[in-house]
Structures are given as C-alpha cells and as structure tokens.
Amino acid sequence: MSVKTSETLTFECETGNYHTFCPISCVAWLYQKIEDSFFLVVGTKTCGYFLQNALGVMIFAEPRYAMAELEEGDISAQLNDYEELKRLCSQIIKNRNPSVIIWIGTCTTEIIKMDLEGMAPELENEIGIPVIVARANGLDYAFTQGEDTVLAAMVHRCAERDSYLLGDERNQTVQNQALQDSFFFPGNKEETLEPIMNPKKDPPLVLFGSLPSSVAFQLGLELKRQSIQVSGWLPAQKYNNLPLLGDGVYVCGVNPFLSRTATTLMRRRKCRLIGAPFPIGPDGTRAWIEKICSVFDIEPRGLGEREEQVWESLEDYLDLVRGKSVFFMGDNLLEVSLARFLIRCGMIVYEIGIPYMDKRYQAAELAFLQNTCGNMCVPMPRIVEKPDNYNQIQRMRELQPDLAITGMAHANPLEARKINTKWSVEFTFAQIHGFTNARDILELVTRSLRRNNGLEDFGWTSLVKRGK
Amino acid sequence: MKLAYWLYAGPAHIGTLRVASSFENVHAIMHAPLGDDYFNVMRSMLERERDFTPVTASIVDRHVLTRGSQEKVVDNIIQKEKEERPDLIILTPTCTSSILQEDLQNFVDRASITSDSDVIPADVNHYRVNELQAADRTLEQVVRYYLGKARRQGKMDRSITDIPSANIIGISTLGFHNQHDCRELKRLLQDLGIEINQVIPEGGFVEDLQNLPKAWFNFVPYREIGLMTAIYLEKEFGMPYISTTPMGVIDTAEFIRQIQWHVNKWTPAFSNKTVDYEHYIDQQTRFVSQAAWFSRSIDCQNFVGKKAVVFGDATHAASITKILAREMGIRVCCTGTYCKHDAEWFNEQVWSLCDEVLITDDHIEVGDMIARVEPSAIFGTQMERHIGKRLDIPCGVISPPVHIQNFPLGYRPFLGYEGTNQIADLVYNSYTLGMEDHLLDIFGGHDTKEVITKSLSAETDLIWNSESQLELSKIPGFVRGKIKRKTEKFARQSGITNITVEVMYAAKESLST
C-alpha cells in the first residue's frame, strides 16, 4: 500500500467558532492541587453557572473556590471595587484561613477594566496574606490555558535561588519541604531526610505543570533513575512550598499548554527552558527524559527497554486501535501530543484541531510528531488552529473517522450519527503522563470502540430522524 | 459584589437559549466570549439530545474588545442562515455583550437585509433578570413578533376551532420533567375531548404561531415560563388562560373545573351541549390516581405530624406544599422559593399551609433553616439533596436546578393523575428511607461484617422465649433479621443460651455504648 506523505506539517487557521471550556475551569483542578489556596473568581452569574455545571458534584464538597459575583452596582462603578473585594477576602480568611488567595479575572473584569493587578498588592498588605491575580478569561484564552495564566502569575512569587546559594537557612527548609512535597507521599518521612543534592554539581531542575501528586511522584522517580534530582515543582502541593527560581535553574514543562509560564520563567526569572516533547505516552515519556538527560550530559540508562516493556503491555489495546482513524476537534491543547502517541500506536489521524498553537514552545513535540508520521508511514495530519466546529462536522461526514475526540457539546449528536466519540475533557482530568499511565490513555481512547463492538450487530447504529 | 458558591437560577441568556432551542428550526447566535456556549454541553448531556444544539457563538475576543464587532456578528448571522436555513435567528446577548453596549439591534437590521431567515435580538437585561424571567420574556417576544408579522401581512385568521382546543404554553428544553408532563397533559386533555392547538416552545414551528389565537383558551402549566405570553394573548386577542398547575389531586380537579367553565362558555355557540367533567374527576381521583386512596391507607397515617421542608421554584414548591399539607397530612415547617420576583404569589398560595415561608436565593440560608428545623424529610432541588446528605435527612428532588438523574428515561410526570402517583411514591420513599435509617441507628448501625454462624438459616443453639419472640416480631421486618443476629451474637459472647427480652435490651445497650 502506498501512502502519500507530505514532508512538512501544514497549519491552517479557521474562524474560531468552536466549543471549549472557559479557562476559569482551571480552578477545578488547581484548588485541589494547591491544598492551602482559595480561588476567587471575579465575574458574573454566567461564570458561576458555568463552574457549577462543569464541576458537577465537586461544588457540594465545600470547595475552596467561590464567585465574587459582580452586580449592577459594580459594573456601573457605583461601588468601590477595592472595598468590595476587601470585604469578601476578609470573609474568606475568616472562614477558610487559606495561605493564598488567587483572583481569577474574567471577561467582565477585562471589559470594565477593573484593575485587579493594581489592587492586589495593596490588599495583600492590608489583609496579610498573598493575593495573586490571573486573568483567565474567555476573551484571550481557551480551557487549559487557564492553568497557564495562574502558573505564570505564580512564577513571580517563587523565591530567588541566589539567596539559597548564599546559605540562607530559612530557604533551605523551604527547599527541603518542596522536595518532600513533590517526591514523597505524605507520611513517608524517613526518605525525605536524604541530603539534598549539591547545587554546584547538579544544576537545579524545576518542572512546571499541575499534576496529581502520584503522577508527579512517578515522573520524579523516572528522572531519579537517570540520577536527575528534581529540585521543585510549580505548583507544589502547598503554596508555601513554591520552588526556588533564578539564573541557572533549568525548567521543563510537562504539559503542552504552558507557553506563557515558560516564557515568564525564561524572561522574568532567567531560567533555562528545556524544550522537549511532553511525557504523554511511552514514546513521549522516553523522548522527554532523553532530552533532559542530554541537557545534563547524562547517558540515559535502560530507557529503550523500559519503553519496549510498556508497549508490550499495551498489546491488547493496540490490537483494537491499529489502522483505525481519529479526528481531533480540538479544545484542550493536548491534541498534538495525543495525536503523536496515537499515530505511534498505529492509528491514522485525519485532523488535529487545536485552540492555539505555540510553535516555539511545542517545537520539539511538533518535530517528534513529524518523525513519528515518517516512521509509521502515515500522512501528516493537518493541524487546524482556531477550528470552526461546523466545518469540522462537515469534514467528518465525509471522512467518517472511527473515532472523534471531541467536547461534550458534540459527543452525543455524533454518536447518534454513527461516529464513535471520546470526550476530550477526560484527558485533562485523567492521569495520562509517564510510562505508568500510557495504559490509561488507551483505556480512554478505546472505550467507545470496545463498547460499540458489542452493539454493532443490532443494527441500530444511526439513531437520528431522517434529514437531520 | 456577592460571595456566591451556588446559583438556583442561571443567567439570563440560558433562559433565552432554552426557548430558542426548544422551537424547531430556530437558531440562536450568542454574542459571547469563548467558553460561554456551555449551554450546548448542558443540553447535550442532561437531555441526552441526539441533535446538535442550534446555538452558536459569535465570539467576542480581544479584537472585538478593542474595535467592536464590526462585520463579525452580521457575517456570522448570514453564514448560519446559509448553513442551516433556520426560520428564525435569535441574536442573544450575554453579560459580556451587555457591558460592551454594542448595538445588537443594528446588527439585526443589517443582517435582515440579506437574510431569508427572520432575525430578532433577545430583549433581556442580564443584570436584572435570571434564566426563568428571561425565558418567559423571550417566549413572549417571539410570539409577539410572529403575531405582529401575520397581522401586517393580513394572514391573521381570527376564527376559533370548531371543537374545544387549547394551547399549552411553556414546555421547554431542560425543564424539570417537562417532556413527561407534556405527554400527561396531552392525555388528560384528550380524555376531556379537548384538542391541542399548539404546544410551545418545545417542538413548535414559529411559522405556526399565527394560529395560536385559534385555540379556545391557553394553559400555562408552570408559572415561571409562559405567563407573560398568556397575558399578552389575553390582552391582544381576548384569549382566556388557566394558570393553575394540575399537580396533586385537588389542583388537578380544580384545573379540570376551570377547563369546564371555559369550554361551556363557547360550546353553546357550536352545539347545544355543555360538558360536565365531574364524573371524570371522580373516577380518575378514586381509581386511576392511587393518591387519594394512598392518603387513606395506613402507610400515609404514619406521616401524620411528620415534619417536612419544601424549597424550589415557585410552581413546584407551592404545589408540593399543598400536596403534603392538604393531601397527606404532613406538617410543612417551612416552605420557600428562590423565585424572588414571584414572592407575592407564592406567599398567597402557601400562607395557611405552613409554619413559615422563606424567600431567598442564598443556599446557605436554606441550609441553616433546614438545620434549625430538623425535618424528617426535605423536598427541594439538588442543592437541598446535598444539604440533606450532610445532615442525614432524606430528600426528594421536586424542582430545578437538577442533575442528569432528574432527566429519567422512564415515564415520570409530576402533573395530572399519573403525576399524583409519582409524587406519592416520591414522598413515601423519602420517608420510609428516613425511618429505616432511624431504626438502623437505634439498633446499632449497618450490617455487621463479622460472620457469626456459618449458615444464614435459623439453625441455632439459642432459645428465644415466647416474650422475646413477641418482642422480636414487633420490630419492623426490614431490620428484624439484623436485630436477631446482633442479639444472638451478644448472647454468645456473654455465654447466654436463653434469650429473654432483658437480653435483647442488654444487647441493644451494649451496641449503643
């Protein structure tokens, strides 16, 4: 079989009429990750109703987030923003006593030009706890990019590494805590007493991106096998354990949507960015570790075997996906990494829709995608930035992919039209990083294929009335 | 600013979108930033909708913020008209576009020039009305628009149908059990020999709206959506309307009597017969609905004086309060609604049926009230269900806001005679669960994991005397086995072979310490 392959990746840009979650949804996973935080979303009923519906049952668990709901008086500036926010924040401190309050700016605060960045330092002084501002609004960002804005804002709050090198003891404790936090499960005290590395010999490495603590632990362990110590994570489990940053600190991202954070780390904190593919899938994880090793001049050990083992253990799932086609509608920026992994699994990717493509930050991942397509002898998929969902559905009607990875707005209607779907949101909440979790990705990808295998014979696959 | 964790009613545009997407072949275009189209997710997930939700966003991004939408909205409207050929496009403002103060009417006027579809802007203020008020307003706006259009084109036919007929106004997508209620209402009206002229907005076509005045009367099952339309039609066309919600045996009968009155006003003009539904009401009440019988049965006797709290939208909270108090003899300690705009009506409906009334949209206030009152059951929204979980009080969900489990696949109307059965089940199940929990608690928690004997059969070396056997038989069936096992376990541990009533009590005491 001859497959026509184009040499380079093609990028297209459509109208941007696509469905995705509002970036304020990042509070859902970040408030759980940063245990002593409180997220205050400064917005309207529209934002509140979204969070309430998107987060479902989490809302009943006394979450550490709330809306500062703007009323007509706030919009028309009859009320004093500063006094209003002070009142709400004092209430939050009284009830929850958080270590940090994070204000999430929304579309409304942008439009009425509420000066959150200006008010935060003043209020911080007055109420005595840090107030961080992240503008995670739908005017500028999509879904997971919300986390990017929060982490970029946190970069400024990380202590300077120099002071540590000067032997400041207070910071040393902080450093120790950060280590304990990212590497060891709570209660595993003995191991945390290991001496920390010699900062002069091993250059410090800080990883950025919010991951469940077990996944962060697994990735740290993989690097430890290569004698690389992770000196900190952004974000850490506790706000007070933010990593030390500064000139000479190496940083590496674990998620493809963190380009602002990466830029801020480089420009504002003089960190050195390791541009690697992302540790999603065994191929990605290996490439990620290899890239870090190469920066630290370490010869990776046993990585090839480790990857091979994981692929072998996936064989039952691979049988299901081989030769099947996928269409990414695009809504969470994980699309390129997932597509690359699925191509390596033997699937054919027709289209990679993606809200926003930072070609510099994702450069290594894009090159890896291109290589993978070459190695697997499949055509390069088209990458569609700011897709138009209507056009995509027309394209899908022609292509009839075996699987569409799509948002929840389109999943049920596509299923009713004989197209298997997987909700893309699940990839953001599931554990998909590292060697250990490759199986989970395929578990998600194959779910509707496995379910529908049993249903095919009944003959009721198309479930819409004629003409719709 | 207000610190808010939870909202009972959504923002205004949700109401507009619910009405727009309920109609057939109507498309809504939201003037909104990226991510505000989660209405599509709600509809697709909660209603398990098979078709694409006819809602798109004309995205407000950074460029729009600096330069205005310019051609973008107009282009999007025209584009959608070409793609889907809808009868009507409703341009929907969101909180964002409200403060941008862009002239949506101007966009609509420009788009109307080239578009074959009708185009109107939804006339709702985001900061003054909520989801329900906006839905009510939008439905009226659409009806007014099409009746006005028919009048201008001289297509208005003012005659009424030959046989009695009604419009059902206010059935909509994402409404609480609306699909089931609609089916039940159609059946009820059919039983009464009344033709359904139109159901709006769900499944209706805007081109048919000009025929609304052909009906003899209008019927608004839920106060929240449809009342404005009914009032408009009464004012413009002299069409009477019924707004009594046929929920519960008494109100259903009342509803049918009102129909009878309206029908008998006109029937003499067509035939000499008048209708009398009393026999029908009597038959349905006594034999089709089980609720009347249920209130006499001993099950329901156990409810006498039991405490309940009710909270929800105005329609459901008021109707359920009436059912609990009048039909089941349950003591409603507090009833309330988050429909603050309808507080006066609500107070009037429930004033003699409960101890206190709570009008608020703050769920914390509702939670505090429930904690203070300590009812044996709650009838409320999903929020009250969770409050109930925390306080260990059972809750039946009777009103939106709701979760996916409140969109059941099976037939579960709240209205009409079948509705009375469903409600009776709901109430009964809430309380028995509550009682069961209570009894389990008295007798020492949930089932033990320790195996006492190897078999479950009654083979045992222990002897129960006649008194203790009698005592055991008094314990309700569903916990009896458990009490027996617990007592026997205690007896074995204490080296007792003869079980007396004293031993039973001692066993119970040993468990409670």
UniProtKB/TrEMBL annotation, chain A:
The positions annotated for binding [4Fe-4S] cluster are 22, 47, 107
| UniProt xrefs under SUPFAM superfamilies | Helical backbone' metal receptor (SSF53807)
The organism's place on the tree of life at top rank: Eukaryota
Domain Nitrogenase/oxidoreductase component, chain residue ranges per copy: 22-447
The cofactor binding remark recorded in the entry reads: Binds 1 [4Fe-4S] cluster per heterodimer. The cluster is bound at the heterodimer interface by residues from both subunits.
Catalysed reaction equations from the record? chlorophyllide a + oxidized 2[4Fe-4S]-[ferredoxin] + 2 ADP + 2 phosphate = protochlorophyllide a + reduced 2[4Fe-4S]-[ferredoxin] + 2 ATP + 2 H2O
What cofactors does this protein use? [4Fe-4S] cluster
The answer to whether keyword Oxidoreductase applies is: yes
Localization annotation: Plastid, Chloroplast
Q: Name one GO biological process term.
A: light-independent chlorophyll biosynthetic process
| EC supergroup of this enzyme | oxidoreductase
Give the metabolic or biological pathway: Porphyrin-containing compound metabolism; chlorophyll biosynthesis (light-independent)
Any GO MF annotation of the entry: metal ion binding
Gene3D superfamilies for this protein: Nitrogenase molybdenum iron protein domain
What EC number(s) does its UniProt record assign? Answer: 1.3.7.7
Return the GO cellular component terms, semicolon-separated: chloroplast
Tell me which UniProt keywords the record has, alphabetically: 4Fe-4S, ATP-binding, Chlorophyll biosynthesis, Chloroplast, Iron, Iron-sulfur, Metal-binding, Nucleotide-binding, Oxidoreductase, Photosynthesis, Plastid
Question: What is this protein's function?
Answer: Component of the dark-operative protochlorophyllide reductase (DPOR) that uses Mg-ATP and reduced ferredoxin to reduce ring D of protochlorophyllide (Pchlide) to form chlorophyllide a (Chlide). This reaction is light-independent. The NB-protein (ChlN-ChlB) is the catalytic component of the complex.
Query: Entry's PANTHER family?
Result: LIGHT-INDEPENDENT PROTOCHLOROPHYLLIDE REDUCTASE SUBUNIT N
Q: How does it assemble?
A: Protochlorophyllide reductase is composed of three subunits; ChlL, ChlN and ChlB. Forms a heterotetramer of two ChlB and two ChlN subunits.
Q: What family classification does the UniProt entry report for this protein?
A: Belongs to the BchN/ChlN family.
Query: Can you say what this protein is called?
Result: Light-independent protochlorophyllide reductase subunit N
Q: What is the lineage of its organism?
A: Eukaryota, Viridiplantae, Streptophyta, Embryophyta, Tracheophyta
What gene name is listed for this protein?
Answer: chlN
Automatic annotation (TrEMBL), chain B:
Q: In which pathway does it act?
A: Porphyrin-containing compound metabolism; chlorophyll biosynthesis (light-independent)
Q: How is the cofactor bound?
A: Binds 1 [4Fe-4S] cluster per heterodimer. The cluster is bound at the heterodimer interface by residues from both subunits.
Instruction: Cite the Pfam families for this sequence.
Output: Oxidored_nitro (PF00148), PCP_red (PF08369)
Looking up Gene3D superfamilies in the UniProt record yields: 1.20.89.20, Nitrogenase molybdenum iron protein domain (3.40.50.1980), Proto-chlorophyllide reductase 57 kD subunit B (1.10.8.550)
- Annotated residues that bind [4Fe-4S] cluster are located at 36
Source domain of life is: Eukaryota
Where substrate binds, per the record, is at 434-435
GO cellular component entries: chloroplast
| InterPro entries membership | ChlB/BchB/BchZ, LI-POR_suB-like_C, Nase/OxRdtase_comp1, P-CP_red_C, Protochl_reductB, Protochlorophyllide_Rdtase
Which HAMAP family does the record cross-reference, listed alphabetically?
Answer: ChlB_BchB
Record-stated family: Belongs to the ChlB/BchB/BchZ family.
What protein name is recorded for this chain?
Answer: Light-independent protochlorophyllide reductase subunit B
- Source species taxonomy: Eukaryota, Viridiplantae, Streptophyta, Embryophyta, Tracheophyta
